[in-house]
Fold this protein.
Amino acid sequence: MTYAELTSLAQAYLENSETGFVANLPSIISQAENRIYHIVNTPDQRLVDTGSLASTATTITAPAAFLEPQALFVTTAGGATTPLLQKQLSWLLTVFNATTDSGTPAYYAIKTAGASSTSIVVGPPADATYTYTLEYFGNPTSIVSAASTWLSVQYPEALLYATLLEGYVYMKGEKDMRDTFQQRFESAMGSLKKDADVQELNDEYRNAPREREA
């Protein structure tokens, strides 16, 4: 399903082509996507960011799309890669002193600096320049700004009924019809959540760290 098809279906299902409703459809559809992404982690939410962590540095700025971390690794100039263990920020700041400690970062914590800014604090502070790889769950590209997305192609029913539900709330529609859209949405989400959970378990099994032989 494309964006044009989705907007056309929303107007047809809700029997509403009023100018104000059509003008607000992009926001309604974005809210529908967010409704889905807050319920389930879909494959297109799994994103990767890379960058450089300079010597003595303790902070990585998370991408704008960042929601929650999946894994963080640092790689030395020689190619050795180290996975970092997530800890509470208070623990990290208590254990490591930014002015006296240094080494290969082994731990990280999430620090929210503002409504749209998230930092990742590492410890100990880097003793050299490292390349980092951040695997995270984030907000993927919206269908509002793309012809189609993974969600609209793989699970168009979930996106459609989420849009209808949000659209009907916008219209302040009757409870009976709103309940019908809610039921249809939950039914479509059942299949999506089941498949996403299986995919996540498969990824965890495939990527689980293995013990090295002695």
